[in-house]
Amino acid sequence: MLTLIKNGIVYSPDFLGKKDLLIVRDQIGFVEDEIRQPSDFVEIDVIDAEGKYIFPGFIDSHVHIMGAGGEGGFRLRTPEVMLTDVTTAGITAVWKAAVST
After folding, report:
1. What is d(CA 54, CA 7) in angstroms, rounded to the nearest whole number?
2. How much is the pLDDT for 98?
C-alpha cells in the first residue's frame, strides 16, 4: 500500500519546509519537494496536508513511566504516564529512566 502526503510542513526533527512524503506500507519511503503520482500505476492514497505539520514521530528518552518524586510528600509526586497520553502526543518510543537505589 502506498500513501502520498502532499504539501506538508515537515520537521525531521530539523525544519525541512514544504515537502511531499511517500509512505510505503508503514515506513517513510521518500521525502521530496514534489512527488508526482504516475497516471498508470498502482492505487495510491493521496492526502493533502496543505498548512499542516508533519513529524515522523517523537522519541522521549527520559520518561518516568511509573511516576517519580514525592520526596516532599505525596502531593509533589509526578503521576504515572498513561499510554494514551504518550501516543496522542505523537510519541512513538519511550525509554524508562534509570532508577538508582
Report:
1. 10
2. 55
76 by Cβ neighbours in 10 Å (0-12 / 13-18 / 19+) ranks as exposed
Cell triple for 50: 496543505
Question: Helix or strand or coil: residue 83?
Answer: helix
Is the CB of residue 59 less than 8 Å from the CB of residue 93? yes
The CA angle 14-16-17, to the nearest 5 degrees, is 135
C-alpha cell at 37: 503520482
**Nearest 5°: phi and psi at 75?**
-70, -15
As a residue count, the chain comes to: 101
Closest CA to 55 of 99, 13, 6, 4: 13
- Please determine, for residue 29, whether its predicted confidence score (pLDDT) is greater than 80: yes
Dist CA 22 CA 46 (whole Å): 9
pTM above 0.90, yes or no: no
